[in-house]
Amino acid sequence: RMLEIIIPGLSWLLITMPLWLSFSHPAMVAYLIITFDVYWFYKSFTLAIHAIRSFLILQAHIKVDWLSQARTIPQFNNLYHAVIIPQYREPIHILRRTLENLAKQDFPSKRLIVVLASEDKDPHARETGTLLKHEFGKLFGHFLVTRHVLHQGEVAGKSSNMAWAAKRLVDALTDWNISVNHTTVTSCDADALLHPKYYSALSYQFLTDPDRAYHFYQGAILFYANIWRIPLPTRVLNTLGSIWNLALLSQQSRFINFSTYSLPLATAVKAGYWDVDVIPEDYHLFFKVYFALGEKVATRGIFLPVLVDAAESHTFIGTLVNQYEQSKRWAWGVSDIPYVIRGVILNGQIAIIDRLRRLLFLMEHHIFWPSNWFILTIGSAIPPILNPAFGRTVLGHNLSQISSGILTLSAVFLLVVVVIDLRIKPPRPKEFASWKLPFLYLQWLTLPIVSFFLAALPGLDAHTRLMLGKRLEYRVTEKV
Questions:
Q1: Cα separation of 254 and 265, whole Å?
Q2: Are 209 and 302 in contact (CB under 8 A)?
Q3: How would DSSP label each residue in 267-297?
Q4: pLDDT in tens, the chain (480 residues)
Q5: Which residues lie across from 193 on neighbouring strands?
Q6: DSSP letters for 331-353
Q7: Which helix (H) or strand (E) holds 187?
Q8: What residues contact 234, with CB distance under 8 A and at least 6 apart?
């Protein structure tokens, strides 16, 4: 509980630092802000470099015949892929779209196992499961419908549902005489559209990977399934998020699986499945496997697109609210940091350097999430205002100009994001009016405002809730 107060408290410390430190040590504040600006320049530069590299590899990998390559490996014919789709009150047309897309995989369909993981408290669960199994059951090797009953000590959400479904899957594999050791499992969001070559590419990468028992696998999560429908503010944020996700594929040392990902089913079993008392299941499972199996645990990129829906609603305001709530739920991943710190301290089997490295990456991501906007946008203006004497010094007088200059240089790397976005997202639909096209470029001018309301603020909301002990309940994002 103390860590749940201290960790998000660091974000508040960074945000308020220019306010309370400018009176006594304004020069220190100035140097800290300039240091952070330089750090942001470095992050922008590396994002651009890794995004370019990932884009070029992805373009090449889309053209590869992964199925032919995988067939040359002796163990290929014994390999099965299970897809768990956790859902709670998801619109049936969204689930249908996901299953129709899965049926387009070029991997042999008889060795694809679909698990529709529903919640018992969903009043439509039984009807939806029966209908979809009747429609799609014959298209796959097996089609299993599970209904998760919430037990004492469990938290409603994806993680507890995944744990229940995975255990039912293992039981079913025994009945079907399929080896757990020859099966991968994919945690697939209800709206995720895997590339048609995903399972062929996964098969090849999995079978040629000597350390596959320690690895997660993930494609490029792109919020492009409905990108042409959503309004400008959320389009900006989701475009940037998509390119960020693409760039992650080339950063193996920092890459942690999220959203839709695959791993050996035997690895999930060995680690004790997904935990039933947490909300952010992806990072949590990664570190659970890491502490169980050691420093070989890592996430490997599959350079193929996985299209998912950006947060959306039937109204403009509703879409903004849904985006805010989704960002807040993602930021709630900060609640995993105390769990990771505990593992870092208690696990003596893994090298301390590796434990600390991974912890620092996680803390960097979450602590800077709600605080970077405040430091970058208004941080340099505060010391001269609160301490007029400092404002008359050379450093105080030039602080805003120095900070602005560094951030202007950082903004140049946005051009890389714009170009890759134009090359990688789905073609413009006919219903998208051509007169709106210029706004695809002008939209980037709104980034400071959009990032405050839809990234920094929900992040701060999640952190503050954790500090105050107000647990976040799992909220399924509305689908249109």
A1: 23
A2: no
A3: HHHHHTSS-SS-S-HHHHHHHHHHHHH-TT-
A4: 899 899 999 999 999 999 999 999 999 999 999 999 999 999 999 999 999 999 999 999 999 999 999 999 989 999 999 999 999 999 999 999 999 999 999 999 999 999 999 999 999 999 999 999 999 999 999 999 999 998 888 888 899 999 999 999 999 999 999 999 999 999 999 999 999 999 999 999 999 999 999 999 999 999 999 999 999 899 999 999 999 999 999 998 889 999 999 999 999 999 999 999 888 788 999 999 999 999 999 999 999 999 999 999 989 999 999 999 999 999 988 989 999 999 999 988 999 999 999 999 999 999 999 999 999 999 999 999 999 999 899 998 999 999 999 999 988 898 999 999 999 999 888 888 887 778 777 888 888 999 999 999 999 999 999 999 888 776 666 677
A5: 307
A6: HGGGGGHHHHHHHHHH--SS-HH
A7: strand 183-187
A8: 310, 311, 312, 319, 320, 323, 450, 454
Indicate the length of the chain as a whole number: 480
Contact 97, 226 (CB under 8 A): no
Q: How far apart are CA 198 and CA 218, in angstroms?
A: 9
In DSSP terms, which residues pair with 300 in a beta bridge? 217
Is-contact 189 259, C-beta < 8 A? yes
Q: What is the pTM of this model?
A: 0.92
User: Does residue 60 sit in helix, strand or coil?
Assistant: helix
Q: Are strands 298-307 and 215-222 parallel, antiparallel or unpaired?
A: parallel
CA angle 458, 459, 461 (to 5 degrees): 60
Cα–Cα distances (Å) from 423 to 58, 309, 433, 447, in that order, read 12, 19, 19, 20
> Could you tell me the CA-to-CA distances from 426 to 62, 112, 220, 229, 305 in Å, in that order?
14, 27, 14, 12, 11
Structure tokens belonging to residue 346:
């208690």
Identify the residue whose tokens are 């799992």: 474
